Amino acid sequence: MTTTENHTPMGFGRMHRKEDARFIRGHGQYVDDVNLPGMLHGAVLRSPHAHARIVSIDTSAAEAHPKVKAVITGQTLEGLNLAWMPTLSHDVQAVLATDKVRFQGQEVAFVVADDRYAARDALEVIDVEYEALPPVVDARRALEPDAPVIRTDIDGKRDNHIFDWEAGDAARTDEVFASADVVSAQDMLYPRVHPAPMETCGAVAHMDPITGKLTVWTTTQAPHAHRTLYALVAGLPEHKIRVISPDIGGGFGNKVGIYPGYVCAVVGSIVTGKPVKWMEDRSENLMSTSFARDYHMHGEIAATRDGKILGVRVNVLADHGAFNGTAQPTKFPAGFFSVFTGSYDIEAAHCAVTGVYTNKAPGGVAYACSFRITEAVYLVERLVDVLAYDLGMDPAELRKRNLLRPEQFPYVSKTGWEYDSGDYPRALSQAMDIAGYAELREEQKRRAVSGDGPLMGIGISFFTEAVGAGPRKHMDILGLGMADGAELRVHPTGKAVLRLSCQSQGQGHETTFAQIVAEELGISPDDIEVVHGDTDQTPFGLGTYGSRSTPVSGGATAVVARRVRERAKIVASAMLEVSPDDLEWEKGRWFVQGDPDSGKTIQEIALAAHSDLELPDGVEGHLDATCVYNPPNLTYPFGAYICVVDVDPETGQVKVRRFVAVDDCGVRINPTIVEGQVHGGLAEGIGMALMQVMAFDEDGNHLGGSFMDYLIPTSMECPSWELGETVTPSPHHPIGAKGVGESATVGSPAAVVNAVVDALKPYGVRHADMPLTPAAVWRALQNRPLRTDLAIT
Amino acid sequence: MTTTENHTPMGFGRMHRKEDARFIRGHGQYVDDVNLPGMLHGAVLRSPHAHARIVSIDTSAAEAHPKVKAVITGQTLEGLNLAWMPTLSHDVQAVLATDKVRFQGQEVAFVVADDRYAARDALEVIDVEYEALPPVVDARRALEPDAPVIRTDIDGKRDNHIFDWEAGDAARTDEVFASADVVSAQDMLYPRVHPAPMETCGAVAHMDPITGKLTVWTTTQAPHAHRTLYALVAGLPEHKIRVISPDIGGGFGNKVGIYPGYVCAVVGSIVTGKPVKWMEDRSENLMSTSFARDYHMHGEIAATRDGKILGVRVNVLADHGAFNGTAQPTKFPAGFFSVFTGSYDIEAAHCAVTGVYTNKAPGGVAYACSFRITEAVYLVERLVDVLAYDLGMDPAELRKRNLLRPEQFPYVSKTGWEYDSGDYPRALSQAMDIAGYAELREEQKRRAVSGDGPLMGIGISFFTEAVGAGPRKHMDILGLGMADGAELRVHPTGKAVLRLSCQSQGQGHETTFAQIVAEELGISPDDIEVVHGDTDQTPFGLGTYGSRSTPVSGGATAVVARRVRERAKIVASAMLEVSPDDLEWEKGRWFVQGDPDSGKTIQEIALAAHSDLELPDGVEGHLDATCVYNPPNLTYPFGAYICVVDVDPETGQVKVRRFVAVDDCGVRINPTIVEGQVHGGLAEGIGMALMQVMAFDEDGNHLGGSFMDYLIPTSMECPSWELGETVTPSPHHPIGAKGVGESATVGSPAAVVNAVVDALKPYGVRHADMPLTPAAVWRALQNRPLRTDLAIT
């Protein structure tokens, strides 16, 4: 790991995060730190049933509680036009259930009281009569003709059905498969997981009864989208809504959607005329906020005998829970799962996905998935390893033979996506060099022969992500496009403020985006204030998720800084009394060509722009610019990961011994922050591969209501990461950056699982589903004799 | 007075003020309403001497006070580079005096304590040893060779001297005077007055020790200028300063400059790490914040025997107090006093003004003076009446003969100012019609003959203002130009937010500016939020004073709305799939020419702009615009006022019986607000004419420290105003508006004084100086027999 030097670069490079001054000293300001005079507290009553009809709700005892100020039910909301709220996929979700409850933990009522304790106490005395209904817990049950009906699809035609979509050319794919030497097939499950950010969701809502202005401090990754959704759905006037996202304690997609608690806090404030705070506890967050994955996948891969991959064929049953919360790309119907063709040069591919309703909490954009790329990458990288197993080939060698070659970029995939740039073989080679791949295989052989110590496994994954949701041609959310805005204002004294629509949840935006401006203008990052998280202070945009901050807002920032530079050129030309055409830019100043001493710094130009300097007609006296940026294309970060594990066959315990990650996210603005993002994502990948699963029993009871039940990785489970990098700038981004927020989460689970399965190979294990807990590994080994012929390939 | 109808016009017209919902219910939020956790309180130690050397300051007893957190003196400030602060005229003022005190009430030390009471108590035990120096109280003494030295001028050459400037052609004026039949001369004093806003000045400063961000809630009319001044002078980084002006309880120019208390609150917060509140009491505001006027004027007017005015010649001695706080136009050295040629078609004019230091508090931009136009208008309007007296002519008749004629506009004055538009004779005729001028003169004659009742006087004034400080060619403040910014953002649902750099102090900006957008775009004013008073939320600009909000920010608003309309046209053309050239605008929508049903409303266009609609290359997906507006010229509101008074010769008591005001401020955005501004200004005019004067004794002791000593008018002194209007749109403003904030204050004092002098005419009174208190009037009548020959003209 490289040391961060403690100086401020005038542009890209390592520097300490500007926000850490407050975080390290414990002075971050989170939603729960917002305390307003007269503030009341809310609590949510949740359904104990996964599926039940509501017969009646009696709130009289709760209302009689001396500290209770209001009890809100679905009936209250009807009157306010807030009974249903949109999910990000054009579905709607009941804010508070009136007719039925559809998952355990669903919101039924909301109590507002003087304090949090009284609100909780009052929940106990709300009398809800339920008539239990049979639940659907397994997605495979949902479409059976006699399955209990949770909901019908949007057209009202098919019970429990949400969508069918497909990508690729089915006929051509079948042809390719028919002609292949080898077809390897594998069923696999990507289990339901939860992003589990350290900060749970919550809001403080204040509807000022005098001004009619609603201010909502809220844990959201997308403040502007939230504001517009409140306005569109509830008819609250958009100019009278201010959404403030202060510091956010992690998001990972969990904080994109609107949850009933947010809406209830708003309604509580409307009803009482006081500010109302609502904060989830850990159980509520784990039980009712957006899950991820829960995909039953059947994959097939076709190849020649010598390992040339010809095609991939995939069928997915997608469990979206009780409401379709997943942001649904509408313009490109196959969605991002379309990049299931991976990083390989193949001839044909086809994918079909069916989405169904089940009696579980709604799935979301959640968990660093770039809209289902995580599942797709895992699937294809497992399939490649299964093929290697079947062919008896080294999985590295198999990948080498099939990776896209540098000269193929820009590369249009078999499902129509244009990969921007890359040198994939170089990334894999670098990872293998860092890992010492050949030596590792030697060691593995030695150990297998000697039988000493635990089983050793080596797993590889190669991933390509499609991130930077923004291009008009690809998608929208609820009719809103996916552009992001940036405003850059250079004050008279040459200090600057950059206002962005994206929203940090800990990624270091205040540093990264200041560095982009610094690079373009030559103003020190220390002299640039980055403002986000307040709809009153920032331009409209769709927020931060799907690794889109650098691809979209980063693009907007570079463009807006260049516009300021061009304005500065005109002002400088008036100051220097020369034509703008005679000026030349050097970071931080414009000077007259051939006369380097003649220059005016950006600071001098800023003061002059605000002064009484005579400027050409139509040129206004300031040094500001705005931009709303729609990227021309997605960006395609990629990487090669190698994981080395030790597996104890007696206990099933997996230890990740080494992890090598070579990432290519294009130009790196602040390498230290990039590495931090990779570290976090790798930890998450280990968590998903080895321990995380959000389980339910057959009645739909949620079994992961605390961190004792739902396990997330700590530093104890993580090795000392070994990082490498290649840099192939994206030609579709102003500064060539691609984004890195989810890369490691997307890419790493397959490397870990491939490593574990590789370790178990001597026992004839070809596949095992995540999470590879000690129990799961131990079970996989039962009744399987050790086969030395398999151990040594 | 016209009734305000309670509906919202889609543009200009009468509507209730949007801000009144909170003001009427007592929910305005003023600086003193800001209370932060852990906030400390500051108090200022002030000099008891008008002029003294500071021998020593001993703060040890104050520092020992158990509730005192800090005692700040000039020495503390040296270390922070905050010892001197700029005034608006390139002068500097000691924040806390170290060497000398130069006026009674000057700031010497600042105590920060747990509460206001402890802070005040601690002031008592600060031991300052003074060595008294002789003071200069009368400006006429300041330049005498043996006068005590307060300061030297900026070049260090001449003691107590600030500036000499002149305007007009002295030689040509002398020629005109030499050839004239009649020359009337008069010395007059425009007394020192104080704006006396209901809310005194104050600030809450919070330097966050974690983020290094300074937030200052402050009573300022110019938040951006304040921020830049803090940055320029103290080197505080501008992007780390946020100046918030919440609701402001009246400004009238008193709240333009930076006062030492503001700076001390900031320093107090830096030193203690806590928020610090400082609020003046009434005495402090009256004693030490910016005064106005205090001009000793000698005027001469030359005319032909039949009343054709030929020229005006003026000498002024301007008392600016101990520091030159007056905003000083630097590019047009004669400043706004140059419009002393009034509203008349004359041949030549010359004016010379000398500014001097005296031992009084610094004068300011203060008090609705449009940079000294108030004094100029008073001077010339009194001179015209003196000429009428000398010629034995009716003053209305004399004015009629000399007013500029409509066909002379645009009119370039003898001092080079370009008056934009007007029909002056029509305004005077209308005022005379409303007043029933001929009947009033008849009544006056009858009363004089009968001797019944009090003396009756009829006074006229005609004024032309030059307002809208902004054109680059005219002026700057401290090197900053005088442009103002506007940003208009139309949200996806078609509601809008307008962000302005100007700052309301009660003028109804939230309503007026919303109406300009409504007029241009067809969005209801109710759907437009106007934001000002927060440097973090608004574009840069110089703020509100000198009636410049409508001329400058109003222009910016109209321009920015038109830019949004043009953007909307491009979006609509993409929606309707026609060329933009085929579209026609009708308020609120674009439609295809010849097909009125085809239109898209601005709200539909806003949603589409934020959606995935394909827009032409280079067109970004939003409906926002920004503008920084430098007006092409000043605007010239004008008006004709007629005042009728009754004067009791026994007591000197003046009663204003009637007051007719015909104002032309160009296009009226909200006539109710315009009338409110006129009402307020007329009351102020009566106050200045009849009661207000900030007096000092010969030792420089300030004699007006409360509203028992310094009298301001109430509704008891005001008649039921009789208003009229003419509308000649300004060709130099996008919507033809001129501004009206100071018109009545500027125009009315002369009408009242002319009326009183007219009433006293039977006693041979030709002039009497303001304020015409009962004592002053009574004195003017002493030893003057009633002359019936003078009573009946």
UniProtKB/TrEMBL annotation, chains A, B:
Its cofactor is Mo-molybdopterin cytosine dinucleotide. SUPFAM superfamilies: CO dehydrogenase molybdoprotein N-domain-like, Molybdenum cofactor-binding domain. Keywords: Molybdenum, Oxidoreductase. Coiled coil: none annotated. One of its GO terms (molecular function) is anaerobic carbon-monoxide dehydrogenase activity. The keyword Zinc-finger does not apply. Pfam families: Ald_Xan_dh_C, MoCoBD_1, MoCoBD_2. SMART domains: Ald_Xan_dh_C (SM01008). Residues 25-134 form the Aldehyde oxidase/xanthine dehydrogenase a/b hammerhead domain. Transmembrane segments: none annotated. InterPro entries: Ald_Oxase/Xan_DH_a/b, Ald_Oxase/Xan_DH_a/b_sf, Ald_Oxase/xanthine_DH-like, AldOxase/xan_DH_MoCoBD1, AldOxase/xan_DH_MoCoBD2, AldOxase/xan_DH_Mopterin-bd_sf, CO_Mo_DH_lsu. This is Carbon-monoxide dehydrogenase, large subunit. It comes from Amycolatopsis methanolica 239.
